[in-house]
């Protein structure tokens, strides 16, 4: 057995926000009792989360660079989130690259994709397609987005401009996603959050396993093993291992990457506990495989251009 990974780490999925800007409607205080989303109550993360907060949480994990993924910025203010990120102190590699938000079926989608692609820090787009029959647990306003011709036109334009696409969905949407991935062989897809195994029943997990296996057969999709505690609130290393091992078995280390999803993952685990579990579970893999999971896959897909010998200070110049 290899020893636990001790090299440099890229965190390819986290969020930052300043609630005083009034740009994150999903984090606005509810009028009545706190509503629960599919991963539980969000009350503990209804606070500012900036670069300093992230650095504090991640201080002991040798993070040399991160990828900021769109954080639900209001669609009424397109392009603002990337401009706000550009204004932050990124000297220590936090938010070295961005996955930006563009509603791909919108009338202005292609122009917005082009504007985002003009920013050298933007390497990908996310437009969440996770639809749940319970509106309180749904991230998308409607089902079937991946089959919408207009939405697909927006995706094709992003691909033409060299942008990847972060794919966030629920397991019952994986058949539709498999058709999308097959129809867009030139798009680099990145499946978020282990494929969101939200239904922990035997049937729900079987659907997740089979869907993940089907999706992974396409060469143009990778997976983020991010926030595995979102749907496993009373987790143990063994319960996470069941999910993580299947992700790695399906995609292989060269198409899989560990990621935090902080501060959202902080609802159910602190940063050190989460990455401690990642390191423990990955220790059965070779050093090169662990380096892929913690560093190389994210480095390649999100075009960070780092070498394993670089530090977080070096990463601020990418």
From TrEMBL:
Q: What is this protein's record name?
A: Amidohydrolase family protein
Q: What is the lineage of its organism?
A: Bacteria, Pseudomonadati, Pseudomonadota, Alphaproteobacteria, Hyphomicrobiales
Q: Superkingdom, according to UniProt?
A: Bacteria
Q: Which organism is it from?
A: Nitratireductor aquimarinus
Q: Entry's SUPFAM superfamilies?
A: Metallo-dependent hydrolases
Q: Check the record and name the Gene3D superfamilies matching this protein.
A: Metal-dependent hydrolases (3.20.20.140)
What protein family is recorded?
Belongs to the metallo-dependent hydrolases superfamily.
Q: Where is the Amidohydrolase-related domain?
A: 10-304
Query: Coiled coil where?
Result: none
